[in-house]
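[agent] plan:
  1. take the single chain provided in the ticket
  2. run structure prediction with default settings
  3. attach structure tokens to the ticket
  4. add a short note for the reviewer (M.T.)
[agent] executing step 1
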Amino acid sequence: MKFIFNLMNIVILTFFLSGCYTVGNTVTTKFDVFSNETVSTTNEVCEDGFCTKFKVSSSGSFLYVSYLGRNWLFLEKIQMKIDGPIETRTLEGEFGFEDDYLAGETTETQTLEGKFFREVLGGGRVKETLTVRITHSLRDFFEKSLGEKVYIRMTGKQYYKDVEFEVINNDKGQWYQFVNLYK
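[agent] step 2 finished; step 3 output follows
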């Protein structure tokens, strides 16, 4: 009887853990009958509280970049820098609502503007997301970052959070998948 109980616990634990594990980066493509266009979306991928998600369609492509944590930063801007003196992009915005964005425009300083929205998640977590329209220049930045170390600074009203990670340069990487979707 004890053996059966332990076996049941192992089976239940296996199902629970498999539900928490993500399969990896995926792209979902659907045809929208209302807009008469095909829309491709990547899943959200997070690295140490910095999350990205891409949406690509014929009417426009968008980057959703988020801070995920236990305390509010009240984000004002997000900077992304490729290792070395290559390039930096600054994403700035105003507080708004999901999918309420300003058209992203590239200036000489490579600043893109968008809208932030904030939400409270379960377990005492918060999420602040900036949505920006992707320009050719921003797409080129993502392409140049493939296989490189990228530094992120998420700057809030009083505090900031730094994150660094290597960008995957194959079909398992989200940024790689986006670069190949957005041509």
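[agent] step 4 note for reviewer: The helical segments are 2-20, 136-145, 174-181.
[agent] ticket updated
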